[in-house]
Amino acid sequence: MQATTAPSTPPIPGKYWQWRGHNVYYVQAGEKQPQRPPLLLVHGFGASTDHWRKNITGLYPDFEVYAIDLLGFGRSAKPKLQYGGDLWRDQLNDFISQVIGQKAVLAGNSLGGYACLCVAAQFPDSVAGLALLNSAGPFSQNQPTSEPEALQAQIQPPQKPLQQLLGDAVKWIFQQPLAQFILFQYVRQRWVIRQTLEKVYLDKSAITDQLIEEISRPAFDAGALDVFVSVFSSPQGEKVDVLLKQLTCSLLLLWGEADPWINARERSQKFRQYYPQLTEYFLTAGHCPHDEAPDKVNPLLRDWVLSITQSNYSG
Fold this sequence. Notes:
Elements: E1 15-19, E2 22-29, E3 39-42, H1 53-59, E4 65-68, H2 85-100, E5 104-109, H3 111-122, E6 127-133, H4 147-155, H5 160-166, H6 168-173, H7 177-187, H8 190-200, H9 209-216, H10 224-233, H11 240-246, E7 251-256, H12 264-274, E8 279-283, H13 289-292, H14 294-312
Parallel strand pairs: 3-4, 3-5, 5-6, 6-7, 7-8
Antiparallel strand pairs: 1-2, 2-4
Helix pairs in contact: 1-14, 2-3, 3-11
């Protein structure tokens, strides 16, 4: 397959913050606005602050913007821990209090959306608003749709007939260290990353060599295998409906409707069932609308933050 060579977006230089003895990478752009909350952007599984570069450059003229690498991803440390919603919730909450220093609007894609929801529901004093872009996380009354499981279904080596035949036996095999190691070696190859992105991006021109490199590079860091194994094997966190019942801030949902991992219309109804006062938009994009359609996402996010700022935010 021919490589896509769209113009690259220069990375914004970042900094490191020490959290629980580990290096956490983040990017900061724009000036503090007295009457506007800062924004904190949180990536999905396997991504990093790099995935928000088009949004940071689009939003920082109007807001102070932060993006952070969750522990275990991007340029952040990859210690051997139990990874999941609780860990990332605590990381984001501490980052808001220790680095940002005031309530922030959280915007999260996929797995990052679930982490942001955990913060907004359980630490409401840290959050001025919540924007979720194709957010992951399980609801109580049906099969879980968390991103790692959806991802695993998409990137298994071509053994579908065997998988159907053996069912639980294959799941057991993939819990064994050697099988996990082999699967990880497979999924971090650039051609496999490209193949996976081809499935989840509607606009294939957004799949650039730069994007492939940004996703591939952290997967070769020391500790990356342990993170991969932990995310797949850790117990699931709090259910999305339970978190929505605790939520008190304004909620924006941005859906890439062509997402093969998440049925946006069906999932939208579940969110509305538990949080009917939300605002939402459906976009012609896949699983990562912020990267695929920043010209749509940035204005929607900007206008929504300004609208909730007038009524809810006191700086």
